[in-house]
Each structure stands twice: as C-alpha cells, then as structure tokens.
Design goal:
Helices cover 49% and strands 8% of the residues. The protein has seven helices and five strands. The protein has helices spanning 14-25, 34-50, 57-74, 93-120, 146-163, 177-190, 207-222, and strands at residues 79-82, 85-88, 195-197, 226-229, 238-241. The strands form two sheets. It has a three-stranded antiparallel sheet with strand order 3-5-4. A hairpin with an 8-residue loop joins β4 (226-229) and β5 (238-241). The radius of gyration is 23 Å and the shape is globular.
Length: 250
C-alpha cells in the first residue's frame, strides 16, 4: 500500500493519528489489519524523524504497542472462557476499545464547538455595571467557565483511557442521570467540607458512566443544588453545596 500524505504536526496525539489513518484507509475499526496500519503509522513517525522533528514519547509508545499487537496476531490466540463458552482472545480488543472511547470524546468536542459557535451568533445586551452593588452583594469568585469544564473532562478521559485494563469480559454498570445526581449529593454530604473534587466523581473507566455523571452534575447546577468552583486558577475544580452550612435546597 502506498504511503498516505499527512501533514506533520496536525494531530493531537497517537489516538488522533490512528483514527485519521483508519478513516483514510477505509478500514473497519472492529477488524483492523494490523500489518497495514502499523506500516502507515511507522511511516509517519519516520517522516517526523527525517525532518529532525522531536517525536513525543507517547507516539513512540504507541508504535511499540502496535508492533506488539502485530506480533501477537501471528501467534496462536489464547482462549478465554466467557459465559462457559471458550472463545479466542483478540490482541486488538484493547486498542479498539480505546479508539472507540477517544472517538466518542472527539465527537463530543466537535458538538461543544458547534454549540459555542451558535451561541456566539446571538447578540445580547451590554453587561451591566455591578461595581456599585459589590459592597452589598459581593460577586462570586472562582466561577468555572465552559472551557474549564471541558478541559477537566478531557483530563478525566485521558486518565481513564490510560488506566483501562485489558479484559476479556467487560460488564458495564449502567446508571441513570437521576441515580448519579443522588450519588453526587450523597458524596458531598458525607464529606465534612461539604464538597468533593471534580475528578473524584468519575470512578468508572467507561464512557457511559463518564457522560452520565457529567450530565448529572450539570442538572444539579441547573437546580441550584451544587456549584462548580475553582478557588485558584488551574487548580482542581470542586463541587460544593450552594448552602454549605445546611441541607440541600429543594
């Protein structure tokens, strides 16, 4: 297969590059031809090296991972038992799952950008001067922006993708938004500080749990039961009750 034409430095990371290659090569993500994909990926790495560009360690680590999977594909596949039925373990399973997770977050990012653009097309009145009221009603500090939330969510996604174990039988626990709202409120109330760090609300590796938890947070903010604050710039985002001294308002 001829090498694909790629622009050096246009990718955010190895997962982004792999998804681009899969799309350009028109291959099934659930049945990846490891020989062809590894060849194209290594060609990209070699191009970067020939141009004397520094290759990030994460790209080299992925190259080693692809070579390992390619080698394992040539060996007899070990059998694992799922529901008392023996099936052959596919060395590509972990890679496919991580690619699908990354693809979902890419699509989420694109959707947020579209919504942000649509919001920018609306015109509103000029901001009111509230300086005269600050002595009576101090403006809240540590307000969290949409970009702060998105950056925090991407960090959660990267952390979970890196830690995701290889499992032959993956069982997803599904929870509703309402259940996750109750869970978040319980965690905050059980903490003496009546608060909890943003990242501590995402114990699960799976995309469904991450999305459901995030939607639950947004609904709680909308109902004025919690607020998201960042007391110091670039520090962790914290969820706390709107009335830290007492019970949640209904």
């Amino acid at each position: 297969m001829d090498a694909l034409t790629l622009r050096i430095g246009e990718f955010e990371g190895p997962m982004d590059l792999l998804l681009h290659l899969i799309k350009e090569m028109k291959i099934d993500i659930y049945n990846i031809p490891m020989v062809e994909l590894t060849h194209q990926y290594l060609s990209y790495i070699h191009s970067m090296q020939e141009m004397e560009l520094e290759v990030a360690s994460e790209y080299l680590l992925m190259a080693a991972t692809l070579l390992e999977i390619k080698a394992r594909m040539l060996l007899p596949k070990p059998k694992v038992e799922i529901d008392e039925v023996e099936v052959e373990e596919d060395p590509r399973d972990e890679l496919v799952e991580k690619l699908m997770e990354y693809k979902q977050f890419q699509e989420g990012a694109k959707k947020l950008e579209e919504l942000s653009f649509q919001r920018g097309m609306h015109y509103g009145k000029e901001a009111s001067d509230l300086s005269a009221l600050q002595e009576i009603i101090p403006l809240q500090e540590g307000q969290v922006t949409t970009q702060d939330l998105w950056n925090a969510l991407k960090k959660i996604a990267r952390r979970n993708l890196d830690k995701m174990p290889l499992q032959a039988n993956i069982q997803h626990e599904t929870h509703t938004v309402e259940e996750m709202m109750d869970s978040i409120l319980t965690k905050i109330q059980e903490n003496p500080q009546k608060s909890i760090r943003f990242d501590k609300c995402f114990p699960s590796f799976h995309r469904h749990a991450i999305v459901t938890t995030f939607l639950a947070m947004l609904q709680l903010v909308r109902e004025h039961k919690i607020r998201l604050v960042q007391h110091v710039p670039y520090e962790d985002i914290v969820l706390e009750t709107c009335d830290k001294g007492g019970a949640f308002s209904e």
